[in-house]
Amino acid sequence: MDADLLLTWMSEVGSGDVRDLRQRVAWAARARDRSPKRYESGRWLRDISALGHAEIDWQRGNWTIAPAVAPLLPAAGGTAVLAGSRRVGLLDRLEKSIAVQVQRPKDGHGEPLPAPATVFLQGDNFGQLRDSLKEAGVQYVGCAARSIARGLLRITLGDPAAPPARDDAAEHISANAEDVRFCAGLPKGDGLCRISVNGRPSYRYRLNGSWYHTDHATGILLDRAARGISVMRFRAERVSDDEEIGTVFIDQGAPLPPLQARALVLCSGLPPQFGNLARTAVYRNVPEDIARLVAESIRQPMSVFA
Q1: Is the Cβ–Cβ distance between 279 and 211 less than 8 Å?
Q2: Is residue 213 domain-shared with residue 86, that is, in the same domain?
Q3: Cα dihedral sign for 132, 138, 144, 147?
Q4: pLDDT value at residue 107
Protein backbone atom coordinates (compact mmCIF):
# COMPACT_ATOMS: atom_id res chain seq x y z
CA MET A 1 0.00 0.00 0.00
CA ASP A 2 1.33 3.45 -0.88
CA ALA A 3 0.82 4.98 2.55
CA ASP A 4 2.86 8.06 1.62
CA LEU A 5 0.49 8.85 -1.23
CA LEU A 6 -2.48 8.39 1.10
CA LEU A 7 -0.91 10.75 3.67
CA THR A 8 -0.31 13.31 0.92
CA TRP A 9 -3.98 13.01 -0.12
CA MET A 10 -5.06 13.51 3.51
CA SER A 11 -2.77 16.55 3.74
CA GLU A 12 -4.28 18.13 0.62
CA VAL A 13 -7.89 17.36 1.61
CA GLY A 14 -7.44 18.39 5.25
CA SER A 15 -10.31 16.51 6.90
CA GLY A 16 -13.01 13.97 6.25
CA ASP A 17 -15.12 11.02 7.37
CA VAL A 18 -13.47 8.08 9.16
CA ARG A 19 -15.56 5.49 7.34
CA ASP A 20 -14.57 6.93 3.97
CA LEU A 21 -10.90 7.00 5.02
CA ARG A 22 -11.03 3.36 6.14
CA GLN A 23 -12.45 2.40 2.76
CA ARG A 24 -9.62 4.25 1.01
CA VAL A 25 -7.04 2.54 3.23
CA ALA A 26 -8.55 -0.86 2.43
CA TRP A 27 -8.69 -0.06 -1.30
CA ALA A 28 -5.03 1.06 -1.31
CA ALA A 29 -4.04 -2.17 0.44
CA ARG A 30 -6.01 -4.32 -2.03
CA ALA A 31 -4.28 -2.48 -4.89
CA ARG A 32 -1.09 -4.07 -3.53
CA ASP A 33 -2.73 -7.53 -3.45
CA ARG A 34 -3.32 -7.34 0.28
CA SER A 35 -6.55 -8.24 2.07
CA PRO A 36 -6.68 -6.19 5.27
CA LYS A 37 -9.02 -7.11 8.09
CA ARG A 38 -11.18 -4.39 9.61
CA TYR A 39 -9.10 -4.18 12.78
CA GLU A 40 -5.97 -3.63 10.64
CA SER A 41 -7.40 -0.50 9.00
CA GLY A 42 -8.27 0.71 12.51
CA ARG A 43 -4.71 0.03 13.63
CA TRP A 44 -3.42 2.05 10.65
CA LEU A 45 -5.55 5.03 11.70
CA ARG A 46 -4.31 4.74 15.28
CA ASP A 47 -0.71 4.68 13.98
CA ILE A 48 -1.39 7.81 11.92
CA SER A 49 -2.69 9.49 15.08
CA ALA A 50 0.22 8.30 17.25
CA LEU A 51 2.74 9.53 14.68
CA GLY A 52 1.17 12.99 14.98
CA HIS A 53 -0.10 13.12 11.39
CA ALA A 54 -3.83 13.40 12.13
CA GLU A 55 -6.42 13.66 14.87
CA ILE A 56 -9.04 10.89 14.78
CA ASP A 57 -12.40 11.54 16.46
CA TRP A 58 -13.86 8.05 16.75
CA GLN A 59 -17.00 9.24 18.53
CA ARG A 60 -18.01 11.71 15.83
CA GLY A 61 -16.51 9.65 13.03
CA ASN A 62 -14.24 12.28 11.49
CA TRP A 63 -10.53 13.01 11.05
CA THR A 64 -8.42 16.17 10.64
CA ILE A 65 -4.85 16.45 9.39
CA ALA A 66 -2.45 18.00 11.92
CA PRO A 67 -0.20 21.00 11.14
CA ALA A 68 3.31 20.20 9.90
CA VAL A 69 5.66 20.13 12.90
CA ALA A 70 9.11 18.78 13.75
CA PRO A 71 9.39 17.23 17.24
CA LEU A 72 12.89 16.61 18.61
CA LEU A 73 13.54 12.95 19.43
CA PRO A 74 14.94 12.37 22.95
CA ALA A 75 18.48 11.03 23.24
CA ALA A 76 18.89 11.02 19.45
CA GLY A 77 21.75 13.44 18.83
CA GLY A 78 19.64 16.44 17.81
CA THR A 79 17.48 14.55 15.32
CA ALA A 80 13.91 15.71 14.71
CA VAL A 81 11.10 13.89 12.92
CA LEU A 82 8.52 15.30 10.51
CA ALA A 83 4.94 14.96 11.78
CA GLY A 84 1.59 16.23 10.58
CA SER A 85 0.69 17.51 7.14
CA ARG A 86 2.99 16.37 4.32
CA ARG A 87 1.81 18.27 1.28
CA VAL A 88 3.28 17.97 -2.21
CA GLY A 89 6.75 19.54 -2.43
CA LEU A 90 7.42 19.74 1.32
CA LEU A 91 10.31 17.25 1.35
CA ASP A 92 11.90 18.96 -1.67
CA ARG A 93 11.88 22.29 0.20
CA LEU A 94 13.39 20.73 3.32
CA GLU A 95 16.16 18.95 1.41
CA LYS A 96 17.45 22.28 0.09
CA SER A 97 18.68 23.39 3.53
CA ILE A 98 18.86 20.48 6.00
CA ALA A 99 19.70 16.79 6.05
CA VAL A 100 16.65 14.64 5.33
CA GLN A 101 16.61 10.87 5.84
CA VAL A 102 13.56 8.91 4.75
CA GLN A 103 13.05 5.52 6.42
CA ARG A 104 10.34 3.37 4.90
CA PRO A 105 8.73 0.63 6.99
CA LYS A 106 9.20 -2.96 6.03
CA ASP A 107 6.40 -4.05 3.73
CA GLY A 108 6.73 -7.79 4.19
CA HIS A 109 4.36 -10.63 4.86
CA GLY A 110 2.00 -9.96 7.75
CA GLU A 111 2.15 -6.17 7.31
CA PRO A 112 -0.73 -5.37 4.94
CA LEU A 113 -0.99 -1.75 6.04
CA PRO A 114 2.46 -0.20 6.55
CA ALA A 115 2.63 3.32 7.96
CA PRO A 116 3.96 6.24 5.89
CA ALA A 117 7.73 6.63 5.71
CA THR A 118 9.37 8.29 8.69
CA VAL A 119 11.26 11.48 7.79
CA PHE A 120 14.21 12.31 10.07
CA LEU A 121 15.63 15.86 10.01
CA GLN A 122 18.99 17.25 11.10
CA GLY A 123 20.66 20.65 10.83
CA ASP A 124 24.13 21.97 11.57
CA ASN A 125 22.73 23.33 14.86
CA PHE A 126 19.33 23.95 16.46
CA GLY A 127 19.18 27.54 15.26
CA GLN A 128 19.79 26.56 11.65
CA LEU A 129 17.31 23.70 11.98
CA ARG A 130 14.57 25.98 13.33
CA ASP A 131 15.16 28.61 10.64
CA SER A 132 15.12 26.08 7.82
CA LEU A 133 11.95 24.45 9.15
CA LYS A 134 10.20 27.80 9.47
CA GLU A 135 11.14 28.70 5.89
CA ALA A 136 9.61 25.43 4.70
CA GLY A 137 6.42 26.00 6.69
CA VAL A 138 7.17 23.49 9.46
CA GLN A 139 7.08 24.43 13.15
CA TYR A 140 9.87 23.18 15.42
CA VAL A 141 8.23 22.05 18.69
CA GLY A 142 11.09 20.75 20.84
CA CYS A 143 10.79 17.39 22.60
CA ALA A 144 7.06 16.82 22.10
CA ALA A 145 7.20 13.34 23.63
CA ARG A 146 8.26 14.69 27.01
CA SER A 147 5.89 17.69 26.81
CA ILE A 148 2.94 15.42 26.04
CA ALA A 149 3.90 12.94 28.77
CA ARG A 150 4.16 15.69 31.41
CA GLY A 151 0.70 16.96 30.51
CA LEU A 152 -1.07 13.59 30.66
CA LEU A 153 -4.02 13.26 33.02
CA ARG A 154 -4.99 9.97 34.62
CA ILE A 155 -7.64 8.18 32.63
CA THR A 156 -11.12 8.34 34.12
CA LEU A 157 -14.69 7.48 33.26
CA GLY A 158 -16.86 9.89 31.31
CA ASP A 159 -20.30 11.28 32.07
CA PRO A 160 -23.08 9.15 33.60
CA ALA A 161 -24.86 7.00 31.03
CA ALA A 162 -28.06 5.05 30.75
CA PRO A 163 -27.66 1.27 31.07
CA PRO A 164 -27.80 -0.74 27.83
CA ALA A 165 -31.36 -1.42 26.67
CA ARG A 166 -32.72 -4.94 26.97
CA ASP A 167 -32.73 -5.43 23.19
CA ASP A 168 -29.12 -4.20 22.78
CA ALA A 169 -26.65 -6.88 21.66
CA ALA A 170 -24.29 -6.19 24.56
CA GLU A 171 -20.85 -7.70 25.11
CA HIS A 172 -18.51 -7.63 28.10
CA ILE A 173 -14.83 -8.40 28.70
CA SER A 174 -14.00 -11.96 29.66
CA ALA A 175 -12.53 -12.56 33.11
CA ASN A 176 -9.61 -14.39 31.45
CA ALA A 177 -6.47 -12.67 32.73
CA GLU A 178 -4.38 -13.82 29.76
CA ASP A 179 -6.36 -12.09 27.03
CA VAL A 180 -8.83 -9.28 26.38
CA ARG A 181 -11.82 -10.88 24.74
CA PHE A 182 -15.44 -9.71 24.50
CA CYS A 183 -18.19 -12.21 25.33
CA ALA A 184 -21.94 -11.98 24.80
CA GLY A 185 -24.08 -10.40 27.51
CA LEU A 186 -23.73 -7.82 30.26
CA PRO A 187 -21.02 -8.13 32.91
CA LYS A 188 -22.20 -9.82 36.10
CA GLY A 189 -20.79 -7.01 38.20
CA ASP A 190 -18.73 -3.92 37.46
CA GLY A 191 -16.85 -3.76 34.16
CA LEU A 192 -16.76 -2.71 30.53
CA CYS A 193 -19.65 -3.25 28.13
CA ARG A 194 -19.78 -2.77 24.36
CA ILE A 195 -22.94 -2.08 22.34
CA SER A 196 -23.66 -0.72 18.87
CA VAL A 197 -25.07 2.79 18.35
CA ASN A 198 -25.89 3.91 14.80
CA GLY A 199 -23.65 1.17 13.44
CA ARG A 200 -20.63 2.19 15.54
CA PRO A 201 -19.34 0.48 18.68
CA SER A 202 -20.17 2.38 21.86
CA TYR A 203 -18.72 1.65 25.29
CA ARG A 204 -20.26 1.83 28.77
CA TYR A 205 -18.64 1.03 32.09
CA ARG A 206 -20.55 -0.10 35.18
CA LEU A 207 -19.01 0.98 38.47
CA ASN A 208 -20.70 0.38 41.83
CA GLY A 209 -23.97 -0.27 40.01
CA SER A 210 -23.93 2.99 38.00
CA TRP A 211 -23.18 3.30 34.27
CA TYR A 212 -20.75 5.74 32.64
CA HIS A 213 -19.64 6.61 29.12
CA THR A 214 -16.11 5.62 28.15
CA ASP A 215 -14.08 4.72 25.07
CA HIS A 216 -12.42 1.50 23.92
CA ALA A 217 -8.89 2.14 25.22
CA THR A 218 -9.89 3.79 28.51
CA GLY A 219 -12.48 1.14 29.28
CA ILE A 220 -10.07 -1.74 28.75
CA LEU A 221 -7.30 -0.10 30.77
CA LEU A 222 -9.67 0.66 33.65
CA ASP A 223 -10.87 -2.93 33.52
CA ARG A 224 -7.27 -4.24 33.64
CA ALA A 225 -6.44 -1.91 36.55
CA ALA A 226 -9.55 -3.00 38.47
CA ARG A 227 -8.53 -6.65 38.04
CA GLY A 228 -4.93 -5.94 39.07
CA ILE A 229 -3.61 -7.03 35.65
CA SER A 230 -0.41 -5.29 34.50
CA VAL A 231 -0.15 -4.55 30.76
CA MET A 232 3.02 -2.40 30.61
CA ARG A 233 6.72 -3.26 30.94
CA PHE A 234 9.98 -1.32 30.42
CA ARG A 235 13.35 -2.76 29.46
CA ALA A 236 16.34 -0.49 30.06
CA GLU A 237 18.92 -0.74 27.25
CA ARG A 238 21.33 2.21 27.46
CA VAL A 239 22.10 5.40 29.34
CA SER A 240 22.15 8.86 27.75
CA ASP A 241 22.80 12.03 29.75
CA ASP A 242 22.28 10.10 33.00
CA GLU A 243 18.83 8.82 31.99
CA GLU A 244 17.79 5.28 31.18
CA ILE A 245 16.60 4.75 27.59
CA GLY A 246 14.81 1.57 26.65
CA THR A 247 11.84 -0.22 25.13
CA VAL A 248 8.24 -0.23 26.33
CA PHE A 249 6.05 -3.31 25.86
CA ILE A 250 2.24 -3.03 25.99
CA ASP A 251 -0.07 -6.04 25.81
CA GLN A 252 -1.78 -6.00 22.40
CA GLY A 253 -5.24 -6.36 23.88
CA ALA A 254 -4.85 -3.07 25.77
CA PRO A 255 -4.59 -0.21 23.25
CA LEU A 256 -3.27 3.09 24.54
CA PRO A 257 -5.32 6.30 24.38
CA PRO A 258 -4.15 8.64 21.58
CA LEU A 259 -1.99 11.00 23.66
CA GLN A 260 -0.26 8.20 25.56
CA ALA A 261 0.49 6.42 22.29
CA ARG A 262 1.80 9.64 20.76
CA ALA A 263 4.11 10.31 23.72
CA LEU A 264 5.75 6.91 23.22
CA VAL A 265 5.84 6.96 19.40
CA LEU A 266 7.45 10.41 19.26
CA CYS A 267 10.41 9.04 21.21
CA SER A 268 11.54 7.22 18.06
CA GLY A 269 9.37 8.66 15.27
CA LEU A 270 8.41 5.09 14.36
CA PRO A 271 5.06 3.33 14.77
CA PRO A 272 4.95 0.51 17.31
CA GLN A 273 6.03 -2.92 16.21
CA PHE A 274 3.87 -5.89 17.10
CA GLY A 275 5.36 -9.07 18.46
CA ASN A 276 3.05 -11.92 17.52
CA LEU A 277 4.81 -14.42 19.77
CA ALA A 278 4.66 -12.32 22.93
CA ARG A 279 1.51 -10.46 21.70
CA THR A 280 2.86 -7.04 22.60
CA ALA A 281 3.10 -3.59 21.04
CA VAL A 282 6.74 -2.46 21.16
CA TYR A 283 7.82 1.20 21.49
CA ARG A 284 11.55 1.98 21.21
CA ASN A 285 13.98 4.69 22.38
CA VAL A 286 11.76 5.66 25.32
CA PRO A 287 13.32 7.46 28.32
CA GLU A 288 12.28 5.88 31.61
CA ASP A 289 10.71 9.08 32.93
CA ILE A 290 8.39 9.28 29.92
CA ALA A 291 7.47 5.61 30.32
CA ARG A 292 6.65 6.16 33.99
CA LEU A 293 4.46 9.20 33.24
CA VAL A 294 2.53 7.17 30.67
CA ALA A 295 2.14 4.25 33.08
CA GLU A 296 0.85 6.53 35.84
CA SER A 297 -1.67 8.14 33.47
CA ILE A 298 -3.16 4.74 32.53
CA ARG A 299 -3.24 3.57 36.18
CA GLN A 300 -0.65 0.87 35.58
CA PRO A 301 2.35 -0.28 37.59
CA MET A 302 5.38 -0.45 35.31
CA SER A 303 7.59 -3.49 35.54
CA VAL A 304 11.27 -2.70 34.83
CA PHE A 305 13.71 -5.38 33.70
CA ALA A 306 17.17 -5.48 32.15
Answers
A1: no
A2: no
A3: positive
A4: 57
C-alpha closest to that of 254 among 285, 232, 276, 228 = 232
CATH number at residue 238: 3.30.780
State whether 278 and 210 are in the same domain: no
Rounded to 5 degrees, what are φ and ψ at 43? -65, -40
**Side chain identity at residue 260, one-letter code:** Q
Residue 63 and residue 119 in one domain: yes
Q: Output the DSSP codes for 260-288.
A: HHHHHHTTTTSPPEEETTTTEEEEEEEEH
Mean pLDDT, the chain, rounded, equals 91
Q: What is the pLDDT of residues 38-55, one digit of tens each?
A: 778 888 999 999 999 999
Decide: helix, strand or coil at residue 168: coil
The single-letter DSSP state of residue 301 is -
Alpha-carbon distances of 43 from 37, 119, 147, 193, rounded to whole Å = 10, 20, 24, 21
- Name the residue range of residue 26's domain: 1-142
